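The methods section describes the discrete structure representation at length, but only in general terms. What matters is that the chain and its backbone geometry are given together, residue for residue. Nothing conveys this as quickly as seeing an actual entry. For illustration, here is how one protein appears when written out as sequence plus structure tokens:
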Amino acid sequence: MANIRKLASGKWQARVHKDGKLVSIGTFRTSKEAKIEAAKVEERIYYGQTLNDRNMLFKEVVNDWLEHKKANVKESTFVQLEVIIRNHILPTFGDKKIMTIKRIEIKRWIATFGELNENGKEKYSFGSRLKYLSVMKSILHYAVHELEVLEKNPADKLKVPVKDSVALKKEKVKYFSLEELNQLLDFMKAYKHQRFPDYQLYYTLMLFLSKTGLRISEALALRWEDINGDKITIDKQTSRDDNNNVKLTTLKNSSSYRTIKIDNDLVRELKKFKMKQNELLLGNPRFRKNEDSIIFQNFNGHYLTPSTIRETMQDYCKKAGVDYKGTHGFRHTHAVLLLESGASLKYVSNRLGHKTIKTTADTYLDVTEKIEEDELQKFASYTKR
């Protein structure tokens, strides 16, 4: 039988018998609340379920959660989770008891990331705040359903404010127009590298990215054996460890594993590039072969690093008189040009390796809306009386 008593503070304490001892399960505003909670706990004891550990710290739950995640996510994802927790979650909640964390605290915490800095811009992007809240929800969900130290998830159904999601939709993806892309590629085709003038590594890489829509990490992992005629198989990607050593890892999700066709122009350019690469490997001792036979190797035989690619492409764009759009800009460019040429959303989604067609539609919302409007105008003109 539960023991309910009124404290000097005016609150009511509930205690239950466990292993021959009276164990406190907390204090409550009214006697009724204390009795209801005590009845729940006694039921858990009767059925041999775990009692809530009211002294368990949030950081202890996090450590347990991380061990669980380590066995179930990719290494690169695990590293991202660790960074989010270390920098953005533990400073606020780490030393708090898991049972004392309230919903209002979590709302205030996520709101701080949307505050404006001295430049009048939000401290963190909407996408970053979504990630932080998602990780927090996952930790608390684990505490409820796996550790059973919480009755309910205080972050359940919490959302980043709607006004922020509206602002997010107004953000436009960066891509090259067809004119800009051609201007950049024309410059790159005529550009001569000082050490190896005829080894057009960056021209071929830019052309390839704009013609395939591959993520840069997918392109850098490609080997010559992954190309069969006019088809390319994508089944791995590159990443870097803390010491900047290259690693080949699995892809983002199951939809990322795909085989795509490429057009005849790209097939010809790749053949020319391979011939030049082989010619240098055979005739120039300073040009070394990559042990994995990757396509986009540098003259030392190494994988290209993302930071070097960004800096180099930024410089080439400046010289070509074209605004730099980022390495992901070539992926966006491929998708936009496909949609503008009349390709279906489903085809574009499959080609990019998106998990759902909704991802494609949401990403290229402005483009698809413009295309729909143009198509509707055609229909209106055709049926006009």
Q: What stands out?
A: Confidence is low (pLDDT under 50) at residues 164-169.
